Structures are given as C-alpha cells and as structure tokens.
C-alpha cells in the first residue's frame, strides 16, 4: 500500500476517533442504547466534536476518490503521498480547532484541505508539466 492509501485509512479513523473520544470521556452520560440522543450533545464540546465528526464524514469521499483517481491515472506518486500526508495533518488540526471553538482558523484549515484535495485530483492532468 502507498503512503497516500494509508492516509485515506487514517482520515477515516480520524473521523471515527473524533466522536468516539467524546463518548468515552462522557461514558457516564452516554447511553449506547440511544447513540444519537441529542441530549448527550447539548454540551458545547460534545456538540463541536459531533460537528467535526460529521465534517470528516463529508470530506472523506472526495479525498479517497482523489487519491485513488490520482494513483489509477498514474499521477506522480511521491507528490500524491506528500499531499495526502499534508491533508491528514490539516484534518487533525481542523478537528482540534473545531473542538477548541476557533471558527476562523477552522475555516482556513478547511479551505486548505479542500485545495489539497483539488490538487491531488488534478495531478494526473498536470503530470506532464511537473518535473519527474
């Protein structure tokens, strides 16, 4: 497996760990028989963790598709790997800024992550212009 493919897995795990962590921390209040109980997410940190989790689920398909398309179309593998690692780092920072209630920085990080995805997606189209 390539580094980028491991980053796809890491991005998926990040979105899951974002919500699992607040459920573990609030284990005395969390009722597994009602995992989507809105009352559990009344707490501001839990609510923001849920938002970060949902955004992770929303961002995942485009990232996974971009990586797989770039690899399938024989984009520059090293650059795909580097951008995928950068995306994962940005997503980790995004989760922390979301939970930490830093909306401006969070929006900047989201935009950077989206730009990285666009770059990965179009790598096969511009590979002829890149140095090997």
UniProtKB/TrEMBL annotation:
Pfam families from the UniProt entry: MAPEG
Keyword terms of this UniProt record: Membrane, Transmembrane, Transmembrane helix
Transmembrane intervals: 6-26, 83-101, 107-126
Cellular localization per UniProt: Membrane
Keyword Membrane: yes
SUPFAM superfamilies: MAPEG domain-like (SSF161084)
Name of the featured protein: MAPEG family protein
Organism: Bradyrhizobium jicamae
Lineage per the UniProt record: Bacteria, Pseudomonadati, Pseudomonadota, Alphaproteobacteria, Hyphomicrobiales
